[in-house]
Amino acid sequence: MASVIVIVAAGLSIALGGGVVPPERVPTLPSLLGGVPLATPPPTIAATVPPISTPPPTIGATFPPVSTAPPAATNSPTLSQISSPSAGPGIRAERIQIDRLGIDLRIVEGDGIDAPIGKAAHYPGTGWPGSGTNIYIYGHARAGMFLALWDVAVGDQVILTLVDGTQRTYVVAKILPLVPWNAVAYLGATPTEQLTLQTSTSTGPTAPRFIAIAYPAP
After folding, report:
1. What confidence category does residue 98 fall into, taking pLDDT thresholds of 50, 70 and 90?
2. Residues 152, 22: contact at Cβ < 8 Å?
3. How many domains does the structure of the chain reveal?
């Protein structure tokens, strides 16, 4: 079964699944603030990278229009709104490594709003390796965490160590350096496995998110 992983390191809160989310529960990508000063903006990605203005494909669900103001933390999407009923459970990952970037972090279950210091977080309701859908991992743009994700390149390998002791390798294929904070479609289920990684670009709650998408290694 194909696998896809998505990494995100700052500011995630997305809604997936069927049905329409009421205006008062409009989801957003996780906000990874934590008062971390970011002296420089993320690097400009080569022109070969797909423009971020092109939205990811919609997978069997529609999303309500997002408001211009960030939602309150208490209005984060529920598990049922973002999970995919057809996705298998997969195997939980407990560690993420990107050797070229020096990233090596333990993975914990996140709340979809913030991320713990010194760890990467799994967005609740998204997939795990072997589930055949979107795996969403996010973390703060801080030294020793996901700050180095700004330097990710197409072809970089991402290794997930699973709780059963095995490892899964994903290869970065897409880099999206300026994803709108409310682009919740990136949290949605995908028809094949992928890994989505997210981090922040600034400390502002509506600052763009930095996203890299990887697919299972052949």
Report:
1. very high
2. no
3. 1
